[in-house]
C-alpha cells in the first residue's frame, strides 16, 4: 500500500526528535520470568481483549522487562493512522487499534509515535523504535531490515454510487464507461493496462477522467459525470463508510480480487534482530483473527475488504 520510493535502508541515517503521542492502555509485564502478565484486559473496537498466554510466552525478556514496544507510524494516512479530531494528538485508525489489540494479547503496551514515513526504517536502524505499524507494504528489499508480520492485503478498489446503479461487478464492466481516477497514481497505470483487454473484448476503451484528488473523483460520481472511481481498496472502503454517513457510495467486491486488484501484503515491521518478537506478534495477531476481533477492527473503519485469514511472516514475493 505505502510503496513510496525506498531510501537506502542499510546505511547510517540521521533521525530527528520524536514525540510520543499515544500509549496503549495496559499494565507492564509483571511476572515476566514465567511468561505471566498482570495487564488488565483492554477494550478495542468494543471488544475486550486479554492476554494470550502462548503469545506472551514468546515475548523476548527485554520487552517483558520494558513492558512496551516502541512503534513508529506516519500520521495521518486515513483510515490506517489519523488523529482523533482536528487539533488532537490522540492517534486512532486501523493500525492503532490493531496495535492495541496485539499489545493486549502480549501483556505489553504499544507506544505509538509519529514519524515521517521515509524516516521510519532509518529510525528503527538507529534504535529509536522496535517496530512500525504504518500501512507499510511488505517488500523483499525492506525485509533486509525488517521482519514483516503480514496483517492485510490491499490493491485497487472500485468505488460506485450507493446501490451500484450500473451493476458493476468487475473491472471489465468499466470498459466503455467514464471512470474517475486520481492523476499520477498506480490506479491510473492499472486502468491504462486494462485498455487492451477492453479493446479485445469489443467493449470500447475506459474513458478515464483524471482528477488531482480522490475527493474530486468522488464528487464526479455524485454529479453523475462518471460511473465509478478507482482508489486503493481501503481508501474506497473508508469513503463508503464515512461519506454522508454511509449513504453515498459502496465498493464493488469482486470475488476474483477480494482484497483489490494487484493486491500486495501489508505488514507490521519488526526489527530484523528481534525475530522472536515477530513470532510473538504473529501468534497474537492470529488469535485476533481466529476470535473475530481482527474483523471487528477492520469493520469499524469500513475496510473488511483487506482482510486476510492467516498472519504470515514475510509473505511478499517481490
From TrEMBL:
Residues 68-305 form the Solute-binding protein family 3/N-terminal domain. It comes from the Bacteria. Pfam families: SBP_bac_3. SUPFAM superfamilies: Periplasmic binding protein-like II (SSF53850). Residues 1-32 form the signal peptide. Keywords: Signal. Gene3D superfamilies: Periplasmic binding protein-like II. PANTHER family: ARGININE-BINDING EXTRACELLULAR PROTEIN ARTP, MEMBRANE-BOUND LYTIC MUREIN TRANSGLYCOSYLASE F. This is ABC transporter substrate-binding protein.
Amino acid at each position: 500500500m505505502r510503496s513510496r520510493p525506498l531510501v537506502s535502508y542499510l546505511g547510517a541515517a540521521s533521525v530527528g526528535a520524536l514525540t510520543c503521542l499515544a500509549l496503549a492502555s495496559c499494565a507492564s509485564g509483571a511476572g515476566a520470568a514465567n511468561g505471566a502478565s498482570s495487564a488488565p484486559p483492554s477494550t478495542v473496537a468494543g471488544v475486550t481483549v486479554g492476554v494470550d498466554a502462548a503469545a506472551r510466552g514468546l515475548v523476548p525478556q527485554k520487552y517483558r522487562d520494558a513492558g512496551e514496544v516502541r512503534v513508529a507510524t506516519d500520521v495521518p494516512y486515513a483510515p490506517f493512522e489519523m488523529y482523533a479530531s482536528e487539533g488532537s494528538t490522540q492517534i486512532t485508525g486501523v493500525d492503532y487499534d490493531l496495535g492495541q489489540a496485539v499489545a493486549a494479547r502480549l501483556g505489553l503496551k504499544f507506544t505509538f509515535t509519529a514519524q515521517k514515513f521515509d524516516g521510519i526504517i532509518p529510525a528503527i536502524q538507529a534504535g529509536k523504535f522496535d517496530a512500525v505499524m504504518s500501512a507499510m507494504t511488505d517488500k523483499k528489499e525492506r525485509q533486509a531490515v525488517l521482519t514483516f508480520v503480514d496483517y492485510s492485503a490491499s490493491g485497487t478498489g472500485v468505488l460506485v454510487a450507493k446501490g451500484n446503479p450500473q451493476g458493476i461487478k468487475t473491472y471489465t464492466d468499466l470498459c466503455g464507461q467514464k471512470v474517475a481516477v486520481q492523476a499520477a497514481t498506480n490506479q491510473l497505470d492499472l486502468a491504462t493496462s486494462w485498455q487492451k483487454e477492453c479493446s479485445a473484448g469489443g467493449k470500447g476503451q475506459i474513458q478515464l477522467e483524471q482528477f488531482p484528488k480522490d475527493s474530486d473523483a468522488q464528487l464526479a460520481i455524485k454529479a453523475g459525470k462518471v460511473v465509478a472511481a478507482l482508489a486503493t481498496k481501503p481508501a474506497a472502503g473508508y469513503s463508503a463508510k464515512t461519506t454522508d454517513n454511509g449513504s453515498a457510495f459502496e465498493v464493488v467486491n469482486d470475488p476474483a480480487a477480494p482484497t483489490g486488484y494487484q493486491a500486495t501484503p501489508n505488514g507490521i515491521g519488526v526489527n530484523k534482530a528481534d525475530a522472536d518478537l515477530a513470532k510473538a506478534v504473529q501468534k497474537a495477531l492470529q488469535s485476533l483473527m481466529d476470535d473475530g476481533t481482527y474483523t471487528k477492527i477492520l469493520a469499524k473503519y469500513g475496510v473488511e475488504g483487506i482482510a486476510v485469514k492467516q498472519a504470515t511472516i514475510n509473505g511478499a514475493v517481490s
